Amino acid sequence: MAASATRSIPPLDLAGLSIKRVIAHQVFKPRPGGDPIAPKLSNSLTPVGPSVSLILEDRIGESLGKRSWPVPIEFEKIDVGSYFHLASALSTTESDNEFVKHSHSLTLLLGEIQARNRTYPGGILIVIQAEDGHHNPVSLVFKCELVNGLSGSEVDESTILEAVEDLLLTSQSTTHKVCALVKTGKGTAPSDFLAYLFDGDMKKGGELRPAKYFAHGFLGASLAITGRMETTTLYNGVVAVANELEMTPAERLALKSNLDSFVSLPPGSKLNGPQIVVKARDFVTRHVPPGLQDDFEKSLKAKGVSQGPIPLDPIDLESTLKRNRTFLSLGNDLVLSGPTDLLTANVTFNEEDGSMIIKVPMAPTALQ
After folding, report:
1. What sign for the dihedral angle of Cα 50, 51, 54, 60?
2. Three-state DSSP state, 236
3. Cα 314 from chain centroid?
4. Calculated CA dihedral for residues 48, 52, 57, 60, nearest 10 degrees
């Protein structure tokens, strides 16, 4: 169950990441008959020289940087033996043996989850101890699927090492699930850490639904409710509902223009400045045609858009708002696109004899 209070959590920042220790293990899908296969555990650290370390740090930054969308999470299970307990200890230990031991416990924990369902994919679990650019201890746990699955009898430490190189050191690799835990406080409580989840199943601009077995079962966590998340959910929800309900092209265009303005910070405002709060209902009553407002509001609620105050945080929409373009489908594979404000100001739509007449100012034309 997600936390009830909206929190202000900074985006994940791994600039200046320095890797200290790496180890990799493997977990397996149960056999066709349902019998579990014990995880294959490595007993020694994965060798990471200076050149490999630089490549690895770059690949981690790419996996968890601007091209993806790591979201904050909050731990619900924090008892001894939980993911939080093991990963937090692993992030600060100075002992190779302790690091290996904690990584074994994490892998066995995931193995228990894997054994519950034959559909849960096996893969390599890569456990990393690092330090960010602010000298905060960091633990990173990657769960990566192998392109060609291996049975338990085929796996040894050399094949695991080869899989690590394939998954993290080549541009073709795909990281499916990652948890990053950053220690920012002096204590050992959950409030002394920031935690983030990236799941390859969560597409930017789509619904935030990470694999339940990984987020809830393995991590014992739920998505943290943040202004950043709620602002993005509001934006995506309005766009989706506008496309579902019967609206004219002119109404959709005006709605999109107003939406871009509604979720944008006022000129001169900053995310770390005085908090600005918006409400979905305010947008609906101001900008949705009166006859559609009830259905629009019900549909937004069904899509998980908050009905209460939303602390405005459009950081995940920056590229969308900067581009500020609208694409109107006119049917028959025809699309009208352009900057939202210019389309709104210059394009008019009229219906005549069952056809749509689009009027634009006369100007030189060119194919692009």
Report:
1. negative
2. helix
3. 15
4. -90
Residue type, position 7, single letter: R
Name the residue among 300, 213, 186, 215 with its Cα closest to residue 2: 215
Return the ∠ at Cα 177 (arms to 14 and 201), rounded to 5°: 115
Helices (H), the chain: 50-64, 83-92, 96-114, 157-168, 212, 227-244, 249-262, 280-287, 293-302, 318-323, 340-346
Q: Are 271 and 316 in contact (CB under 8 A)?
A: no
pLDDT band, residue 201 (cuts 50/70/90)? low
Do 302 and 308 meet the contact criterion of CB atoms below 8 Å apart?
no
pLDDT per position as a tens digit, 296-315 = 999 999 998 988 888 888 87
**349-367 per-position pLDDT tens digit:** 676 666 767 777 765 544 3
Calpha distance 237→240 (Å, rounded)? 5
Report the 10 Å Cβ neighbour count for 59.
17
Say how many C-beta atoms besides its own lie within 10 A of residue 310's C-beta: 22
pLDDT tops 60 at residue 149 = no
Burial of 193 (0-12, 13-18, 19+ CB in 10 A): buried
- Number of neighbouring beta carbons within 10 Å of residue 240: 17
Q: Nearest 10 degrees: CA dihedral of 141, 144, 149, 155?
A: -30
- Cβ atoms within 10 Å of 255's Cβ, excluding its own: 23
Q: Determine the Cα–Cα distance for residues 79 and 77; give it in Å rounded to an integer.
A: 6
CB 55 within 8 Å of CB 140: no
Instruction: Say which residue the tokens 């339940």 belong to.
Output: 212
Is 301 exposed, middle or buried (CB count within 10 Å of its CB: 0-12, 13-18, 19+)? middle
In single-letter form, the type of residue at position 194 comes to: L
Report yes or no on whether pTM surpasses 0.90: no
Cβ atoms of 226 and 7 within 8 Å: the answer is yes
Angstrom CA distances, 191 to 61, 188, 194, 222, 288, stand at: 24, 8, 8, 15, 41
CA atoms of 57 and 149, how far apart (whole Å): 26
Give me 296's structure tokens.
């629009």
